[in-house]
Amino acid sequence: MDFDIPTRTSVLIVGGGPVGCALAIELASRGVDAVVVEKDLTTPAVPVKAMLLNPRTLEHMARWGIADEIRAAAVTPDGWLQGVTFATSLTGRDLGHFREGFDFHSEHESEDLRERAQVVMQPDTLRVMRAAMQRAGAGYAAGWEVVRIEQGGAVTALLRHVETGEERHIGADYAVGADGAQSIVRSTAGITRSGRGGISATLLLHFRAPGVLEDYRPTPAAFSNLTHPEGGALVVPIGSDLFCAHVPGYPVDVDIADIDLQKLGRRIIGQDTFEEVEYVYAGVYKVHERIADAYRAGRLFLAGDAAHLYAPFGGHNLNSGVGDAVDLGWKLAAVLGGWAGDALLDSYEQERRPVAIRNAAEASGNVARFVSEAKAIMTEMGATDYLATGVAAEARRRSWGERLWRATRQQYIARGIVLDQRYASAVIATDDSAVTPWSSLSYDPVAKPGHRAPHMRLADGTSLYEAFGPEFTLVVAPGAEAAAEQALAAAAERGVPLTSLVLDHPRARALYGAPLVLVRPDQHVAWRGSEDIDFASVLEVATGRVSTEHALVAAA
Q1: CB-based contact 246:225 (threshold 8 Å)
Q2: Cβ neighbour number for residue 110 with a 10 Å cutoff
Q3: DSSP structure class, residue 485
Q4: Could you give phi then psi for residue 210, rounded to 5 degrees?
């Protein structure tokens, strides 16, 4: 639909990809005026590399009311949304199937999850999110690019239409760059990046292969990790005869025209006699590891790829960007709503940048572990008849699969990355209680300040998160109701939106570990403690109205 660009908005979002859309939904759902500026006139038909939404991202989407729409938009065939299979090709020998990967099992199988993971191609995700942000009330200016942006007492930007050349000016209280690796917001802000660029290149292929699903011999899986003497590929079925393949290991200056795509396609399919492979798309993307040295410069902020780039081993890029949008979104809304201080906006970088640094290291580690083991196995494959029949040959293939799984399990089982993001900032109370050491492979639910609030199913089977309020929620143990009433009064006096939730359940008492637990709008714990606390002081810290040196120490 046509959108009449206003002369002013509260938040200008540069970039209408999934991260920009997530931020717009977060803001608009809280009544904040936001305008998204996107240079593409339509949703890109050209495939992009993101294809996995992890359980934490789906939890946010459930809160926005679009999780079911996202799942309905997915095109992975029924029965294939489960774990990872290692194989020699799509019609070749199975090296092993591992169901644990990526939490694709039903969310009802795990108390820790509200939602399970979902494979869905980014253009399909984008269509749902763009429609949702407009329903929520965000403005969407498609076909416009930001050619200049400045800040002083406010933000001003010059927009230009990509087809007509028409120019418009727009002002805003804040601007957020969700505009990718070449962010104009980042360059305007003068924010530098650290890390490595142009580490390697990966081919991105979408191809049709009629009949292959019927001939598919390995165990069906969301991801088929193929290993062959001549190279590897990660393949996802995205239709009855359509596949997406990521083929890593090329130099950054690779030219797709120099690749024998028919030979490569037949190697992936596993049939030398296969008729001509029909490529819907064939392109190259580069692998980077770069983190912005700051996420904020005055009224300008960065999110998503504008702030961080990782190797795509683990699916962390898009999901991290959504996490950025959620963290920043509720904080901008709180400050614009008048019930939070500027220190709350400073906490965005304090909380999200360490997550990006860790994710980048984990993704690069995933690459190194996989490449090392895969090269060794490819050499062994080349020295034997890797497709031979018989017990000995099968045992050899299974041993290769086990080795590949051990080398890549941190890529496929990333519960620490997904669920155990431990924030430490000026708006999080300190808590000296013991906690399990962080691991990318595991998640220990605990309501320690800075952690994701532990999830559980209520007696009627619904998610605890559905019982949380839209802003702050005070989780109350039985017997602490009087203190909760005092807390609600203190919040009302300060204009801080607060809901109380009495949780009478043995598991809740074990998970939350205190009579009172303050949960933020993003479902992270801000504070926990006893009934005799001065709750006004708790709110002053959690909303960024006091300086760091006045931060509270929570009860152990």
Answers
A1: no
A2: 16
A3: H
A4: -55, 135
DSSP 211: T
Q: Pairing mode, if any, of strands 498-502 and 472-476? A: parallel
Beta strands in 88-166 (DSSP E): 94-98, 118-119, 139-142, 144-151, 155-161
**Predicted structure pTM score:** 0.94
Residue 43 DSSP SS3 = coil
Task: For residue 154, give the 3-state DSSP assignment.
Answer: coil
* Residue labelled with tokens 């700051």: 294
Between the ranges 365-379, 512-526, 537-551, where is the mean pLDDT highest? 512-526
Integer Cα distance of 322 and 20 in angstroms: 9
In terms of DSSP bridges, do strands 52-53 and 118-119 run parallel, antiparallel, or are they unpaired? antiparallel
Q: At 452, which amino acid appears?
A: R
Q: Which residues contact 297 (CB under 8 A, 6 or more apart)?
A: 151, 189, 190, 191
Torsion of CA 197, 375, 121, 291, to 10 degrees: -20
Note the helical H segments in 383-470: 391-412, 415-419, 464-467
- Select from 283, 295, 289, 286 the least CA-distant residue to 183: 295
pLDDT band at 50 (very low <50, low <70, confident <90, very high): confident
- In angstroms, rounded to a whole number, what is the distance separating the alpha carbons of residues 81 and 70? 14
**240-271, pLDDT tens digit by residue?**
788 999 998 899 999 999 999 999 999 999 98
Percentage of the chain surpassing pLDDT 70? 95
Q: How far is CA 385 from the centre of its chain?
A: 41
Q: Which two tokens stand for residue 152?
A: 């002083």
The β-bridge partners of 425 are: none
- What share of residues in the chain are helix, strand, coil (percent, to 5)? 35, 25, 40
**For residue 66, which phi and psi values (nearest 5 degrees)?**
-125, 5
